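ok trying this again, last paste got cut off
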Amino acid sequence: MDTLATIARHRQVIATVADAIPTVAAGDSVRVIVDGGHPDDVTFADHLTQALYARGRA
């Protein structure tokens, strides 16, 4: 089970990446690839997708 500190760090990483993507994209389309076979990789990708949608990015 993840501790609250681990969950908070995970959310901070997601928020940082989601905030950085529009800056890097600068109006262009950009794709982010999260590649891995570990279930945490899928969770990270899902959470990042949700964070991007919340910021108005598809």
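PB: full thing came through this time. The radius of gyration is 12 Å.
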